[in-house]
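Lecture notes, unit on protein representations.

Consider one protein chain, 123 amino acids long.
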Amino acid sequence: MSRGTVLAEDVDVAADLWGKFKGLMGRDPATFVAGAGLWLPDSNGIHMMFMRFPIDAVFLGAALADGSRAVLSVHRSLPPWRGLVPLVRGAKGVLELPVGQIEATGSQRGDLIALEPHGGGRR
């Protein structure tokens, strides 16, 4: 939003405990390509256990009055099987993205992100 770029167009949502735990485990890496994403609302940490491929992760703060969220932390190229990613204080959700998406969009701490309903993805 603040950079005029799109991080993901087809975003699945993992809103319940099982969905958050499972995350992207078991997903075919060939299906998690540019444009894809997984939103984990109300989360401030993730794990990489049992993951088959690296990912980028963007930790977001609470929704502001206009619905946008501030980027609190970005984690590029998180390797699979590396355990827990440190908790991010104040994070109210994590957007998991294909590796390279943070770099491609220039996303960084302090950016504003808009999560908008779109025709793709399960919500």
